[in-house]
Structure formats: C-alpha cells, structure tokens
C-alpha cells in the first residue's frame, strides 16, 4: 500500500513544521513548562490563525475538511518539537462532536475550536486496569438531562477548556457525554490538579451527579469511534516524538568525538540507530495503515458496511502497540547513546523520553493493547 502524502498533506506538514520550528525551540518549551498552565498560548493562537487547529474539521465549521490524515500529519510535527499545546485531546473531542454531536453542540463549539478561541479535552481513562471501552463512571437519566457520577483519571489539559467529553456507562451501554465546565466549581464537578510525566497540567475529575448532554446515543458506537481516533492521534504524536529524539542522537553523535573520531562512526552505535530507524519506519507504516482502515470520516447518513469500525480495530491496536512498545524502546536507545548527558533532565532529549513514556501508557499500555488485539482476532471481527 502506498502511504505517500498527497500535495495537500505535504503542504500541511511544511506549514506545521515551520511553525513548530520557529515557535517551539528548546528554550521556549522550557520556559512554557514553568508557567502555571504549561500551555504555550502564543503557539496555540498561531496554530488557530493559520487554520491548523481546524485542519480536520468540516468546512462548514470553519475547518479545512482534510480529516484524520491531516490531523496525524500535524500531530507528528508537534511530536518532533514536543511542543506544549493540547492538540490531540482537543482535536479528538472536536472530531467526536463532528461525527456524533447534536447540531447545537457542533454550532456552539466547533467554530471556536477551529479558530483557537475554544479548547476541548477528553476524559477517557480511569484508575485501575479497566478497559477504556468499558468505563466505570455511571450516566443516569434525570428528566431531560443526564447526570454523571464517577472518577476520571489524568484528564489532559482540562483547565481553561470549555468542555470535557466524558466516557460513562449508561443502562443501554457505554457512551460519550459532554460536560461544559471551564469553572472548577461547577455543579457536581471537582478537579484535583496533577502534573503528568510529560509535564502536562492534567486533572483528576470527580463527578457527583454532574449535568451532561449525550454525544451520540449511549450504547451506540460513539465511544468506540472516539477511542479509535484517540489511539491513532497518540500514535501520530509518538511517531514525531521518536523522530525528534533520533535527530538529537544523530546531531550529538556526529559532533561528539572519542578516540579521535566521531561517535557516529562506531559500529555498535550505528547498530543502535539502525534499530531505531527500523522501529520508527514500522511505527509509520502501522499508523497510516490504521488511518487507511478507519477511512474517511463519513457522514452519519451515508451507507457504510456495518463492520467498518470492527475491521479497523485490529489495525488501530497494532498502531497503538507499536507506538507504545517501539516508541518507548527508541526513546530508551536514544538516551543510552547520549551517555551521561542522556540522563540530564535539562537536556532536550530527556523531554522526548518523558513524552514517549506518557504516550506509551495512555489508554492502556502495550500489554493491554496486545490483550485487546488477541480478543479482536479471536472474535473473528478483524478483516483479513
């Protein structure tokens, strides 16, 4: 299968790469990480002005209509620079609203997401070893609204977000629910601030009868659809993270000399970097296989095969496993070839390691991914 990017996606890559190179250098990232929010608001505004925040959203919502593939290109470039902006959670939440949200939800939120004036996030994880597709948070009917009760763990960049998409279990099955809350004192909503491995200012969310609106039909495919896009988005970020890490290694090894010659000329070092290159290439192929398997974001009223998402699930899990397992392996190797400098928390490559570690465990680690992949293959729902 040919995964060569077309002209539009190459243009997205070029624009995103230029912006991140100009505005997310090492000194700038270090400065932003020391701020209360940990988010580069100037970079976020620039991404909005250039249309990149809405790259995957439909044109009627103010986006470019380029879909999931364009989002992955953008996220890969972010990962290269480990730029501190909450792209993946906001973009995945917006895609979920595009596909499954009500007209009111789309009209009130999506244009703001596209221009950067509104941020969204997702609360898809809980404490313990629970599968994100089977949340423990409970959604119950209360007249014309929904009430959510439960605890969600490590919600990415929730402070300042206009809304949170929460996974919860209703009587009819798992679903997605929108909690509109940029106020930590909102009814039934309590936040505990946490700093995650990658220095994100996340939050643990406790819901006690918090009012919410459904996104899609509880018990339908909204949650699974969103989890698939979240997994692919994380794989795209991780691909960029390890490419950026490898670039640091190449630069370091080309300049550092031992026994009168560059470290890059030593065979043992070359073998390490060759293994990194192979792993990164496998990550890339599996990512784009998953994007292709998910296909275009087809409108609800379009006839599509009933097993589209089931058939794509295996490809998504393979991409996520490679991102978690191989991504973290590459980050470890890169630190190793840096020698003592690699363990310096102030050295740029350490930040790539932290991001790789955080992504590897998000939505379940590689072992959990393998278990889910085995279940999918055993059930016979995966396409040959």
UniProtKB/TrEMBL annotation:
Keyword Hydrolase in annotation: no
Cofactor(s) needed: FAD
One MF annotation (Gene Ontology) recorded for this entry: flavin adenine dinucleotide binding
Top-level taxon: Bacteria
Coiled-coil zones: none
Positions of the Acyl-CoA dehydrogenase/oxidase N-terminal domain: 7-116
UniProt cross-references to CDD domains, sorted A to Z: ACAD
Acyl-CoA dehydrogenase/oxidase C-terminal domain segment(s): 221-358
Keywords: FAD, Flavoprotein, Oxidoreductase
Keyword check for Oxidoreductase: yes
PANTHER family in alphabetical order: ACYL-COA DEHYDROGENASE, ACYL-COA DEHYDROGENASE FADE28
Family, per entry: Belongs to the acyl-CoA dehydrogenase family.
The name this protein goes by in its record: Putative acyl-CoA dehydrogenase
